From TrEMBL:
GO terms for molecular function: 4 iron, 4 sulfur cluster binding; L-lysine 2,3-aminomutase activity; metal ion binding. Its EC number is 5.4.3.2. Residues 90-303 form the Radical SAM core domain. The modification N6-(pyridoxal phosphate)lysine is found at residue 318. It comes from the Bacteria. It is an enzyme of class 5 (isomerase). The keyword Iron-sulfur applies. It comes from Rhizobium etli (strain ATCC 51251 / DSM 11541 / JCM 21823 / NBRC 15573 / CFN 42). [4Fe-4S] cluster binds at residues 104, 108, 111. The keyword Iron applies. Keywords: 4Fe-4S, Iron, Iron-sulfur, Isomerase, Metal-binding, Pyridoxal phosphate, S-adenosyl-L-methionine. The gene is kamA. Belongs to the radical SAM superfamily. KamA family. This is L-lysine 2,3-aminomutase protein. Its cofactor is [4Fe-4S] cluster; pyridoxal 5'-phosphate.
Length: 349
């Protein structure tokens, strides 16, 4: 079936054959709490004959999302603790997140910001908040990189993106602007000449970090969208989440990483899933993750190796899940060192 419109409700899911009427009550409870959208491109990719289809599992709500584990938290990576002004997260000295928009083209069921994103949520920063965010960046000389995330910044119109880039172009100490997005995969036609032109600003190097988790997401259309970005001089890197039942297999991950490299997208981060509410069914253990990443090492070129990382709950930053930074302490628990040398328990008490 060719979907002609985005799926935005349980009724739409039932109509598209992605849920049954018997699922309705549980899924209504899920979508009352967490946003749902599947683009036509994603809906078309789903294999309805496979009850564990890795595309469906990423985007179709599941009653398991109603089960919240005690260690899960609304703000799993501690954005709020490091937010000096609305829309800015300043966790590390040389870079900030700029969360200009809290809308996404699709809503991933494992999203680490699932309590913050969605059409009913915080929307787009208004003009005054944007100005305050740019003032903050401009007054902090140490900020070398601005990372637009959210939400997905590429849902913004070229006009809005141009305004953002124009404001950043006026801040001389900012050298790098990075966009984190799913758009090239879930809505590839949006990556057109107008949008690409809007991402550029004189004196800034622009990176696009593409979020994809399964090799099937890299359709011909998605590959063409990446090619348009790279041909325009934009550097692309990848980010993926290691997800139980979706890509927790070295062969699948190898195919994904090779597909990134073949499309001039350098593998960057492989995230251990965060402790977002109702996402326990996606989470594997650190030990399982380490085993998968070790297997990957022997299988594929060094060019294809992502860095396996854990965002330390509470906002203490990222830790590479290897060597001395993440040490088993027994009973499935770990001691994790942050970049300042602080020690944290994982999972948190
Ligand atoms: S695109 Fe990113 S921010 Fe949006 S739902 Fe998916 S993981 Fe969350």
């Amino acid at each position: 079936m060719n979907a002609v419109k985005p799926i935005k409700s349980v009724d739409d899911l039932v109509e598209a054959g992605l849920a049954t009427p018997a699922d309705r009550a549980a899924l209504e409870a899920v979508t009352a709490r967490y946003a749902i959208t599947l683009t036509p491109e994603i809906t078309r990719l789903i294999d309805r004959a496979d009850p564990n289809d890795p595309i469906a599992r990423q985007f179709v709500p599941d009653a398991a999302e109603l089960v919240v584990a005690p260690e899960e938290r609304a703000d799993p990576i501690g954005d709020h603790a490091h937010s000096p002004v609305e829309g800015i997260v300043h966790r590390y000295p040389d870079r900030v997140l700029l969360k200009a928009v809290h809308i996404c083209p699709v809503y991933c069921r494992f999203c680490f910001r699932r309590e913050m994103v969605g059409p009913q949520g915080l929307g787009t920063l208004d003009a005054a908040a944007m100005e305050a965010a740019f003032d903050y960046i401009g007054s902090h000389q140490e900020i070398w990189e601005v990372i637009l995330t959210g939400g997905d910044p590429l849902v913004l119109s070229p006009r809005r993106l141009r305004e953002i880039m124009k404001a950043l172009a006026n801040i001389s100490h900012v050298k790098i602007v990075r966009f984190h997005t799913r758009v090239p995969v879930v809505d590839p036609e949006k990556i057109d000449a107008a949008l690409i032109a809007a991402l550029k600003a004189s004196g800034k190097t622009v990176y696009v970090a593409l979020h994809a988790n399964h090799p099937r997401e890299l359709t011909m259309e998605a590959r063409a969208a990446c090619a348009r970005l790279v041909d325009a001089g934009i550097v692309m890197v990848s980010q993926s989440v290691l997800l139980k039942g979706i890509n927790d297999d070295p062969a699948i991950l190898a195919d994904l990483m090779k597909a990134f490299v073949e499309n001039r997208v350098k593998p960057y981060y492989l995230h251990h899933p965060d402790l977002a509410p109702g996402t326990g069914h996606f989470r594997l253990t650190i030990e399982e993750g380490q085993r998968i990443v070790a297997a990957l090492r022997g299988q594929i070129s060094g060019l294809c190796q992502p860095t396996y990382i854990l965002d330390i709950p509470g906002g203490h930053g990222k830790a590479v899940v290897s060597g001395s930074t993440v040490q088993a302490t027994g009973d499935g628990c770990y001691s994790v060192s942050d970049y300042r040398g602080g020690e944290h328990s994982y999972p948190p008490a």
